[in-house]
Amino acid sequence: MTLVAGVDSSTQACKVVVRDAATGALVREGRARHPEGTEVDPAHWWSALQEALAAAGGLDDVAAVSVGAQQHGMVCLDQAGNVVRPALLWNDTRSARAADDLVGELGEGEKGARAWAEAVGTVPVAAFTVTKLRWLADNEPEAAKTTAAVALPHDWLTWGLRGYGPGRASPGDGGDAVDALAQLVTDRGDASGTGYWSPATGRYRLDLLERGLGHPALVPTVLGPAEVAGRTATGTLVGPGTGDNAAAALGVGAGPGDVVVSIGTSGTVFAVASRPTADPTGTVAGFADATGLFLPLVCTLNAARVLDAACALLRVSHAELSELAMQAPPGAGGLVLVPYLEGERTPNRPEATGAVHGLRLGTATPAHLARAAVEGLLCGLADGLDALVAQGVEVSRVILIGGGSRSEALRRLAPAVLGHPVFVPPESEYVADGAARQAAWLLKGGERPPQWEAAGGARYDAEPTPGVRERYAEVRELTARRPPA
Q1: Which of 8, 101, 155, 244 is catalytic?
Q2: Burial code of 279-302, b = ≥16 C-beta within 10 A, e = fewer?
Q3: pTM above 0.85, yes or no
Q4: Helices marked H in 109-185
Q5: Per-residue model confidence as pLDDT tens digits over 385-411
Q6: 461 tagged catalytic
């Protein structure tokens, strides 16, 4: 049996799966925690990767490995290949003003947004790497000046597996360090989330990177979907890796007509498409996928942790929250929860807070609040689905994945709110699975990744519930109003 490994270095943890390259059957797995926060020393990711790999039995008998990881995170390296400062993660919103500044510099109002969309398929928001570089240049100019290369989390971990950066035997210096920086690689999927690489042209816009950082910097070479990046010290092939959403699409086997809704730390709604998108409103990010196609995507900052917060507020377990939610009527009797608990990315309201509206004596019950939390989370994702459709994405079914999909109430209410049948595949680490499938592709070769048949799963159908989304939209717009200073 030939084995491959896939890594998911997410916001919260590092997960490793080892699978049969031919069938995709799970052989073993491992996991390690990441520290909390929106600013993290990448060294923690490297130590967690070592811990998770050890728990999964190591790589000695593994033929190939690939890394999927959280998108957008800013990893700045100096000329010696050392990390300049802790990485700013995708969910760090301190660069919201920097995003506005960057958009405005290419034109006033809609003109600037359209210019960015045409240039790189996306309009900068606080999540994107280019905005974090501008924040760095504005707020930590010495760190910005020291930055010789900019990488993403998966780029940096892939570099380490190949014996550079965190994986090097001793610190580099001089020409050796410069040569090591030149060995940084990435893929189309993750590069498309930086704000300075275009899926439509397949090229970097280094002028936009320089606009963010204030000076030129080295960027990783963009490899093809099944191009070998290198080898580990023990000879295991290392794939190009990709961002977490592109890896999840590959892991779940999404095809034409499938829209993936992933409910994890963030909520994402995305589809594999044959052509690039460029949404000047900035709602749909025009990313690339991990197979050579495209991945139009909408992301919300608030997803599974909305359920966590509701559980904490009501002092119940997740199972109990589901039971409570199903006891309340559709629409929670008019009670609406807008779940902007950490600000929001879609719509772009980084300073927004959550809101509960429609509280009456009859709706002041745990069941009504539980249902409002589940429906509010789903309504935010349904807005994202509408935005994809407006960009020409066809929807035949919705594939629901991520930790939040374990909620029975969420599964049952999803088709009514999203307006489409929902398929929930067997529980798995789909980002790591996608990375493992990419690793198997390295061995197989060819134009398309290997087909791994997955058995099981459940389909959920329900008629749309009248008024739920309309009522949510009314309350959502209240959050656009800034409170008085």
Answers
A1: 244
A2: bbebbbbbbbbbbebbbbbbbbbb
A3: yes
A4: 110-120, 129-139, 141-146, 153-161, 174-181
A5: 999 999 999 898 899 999 999 999 999
A6: no
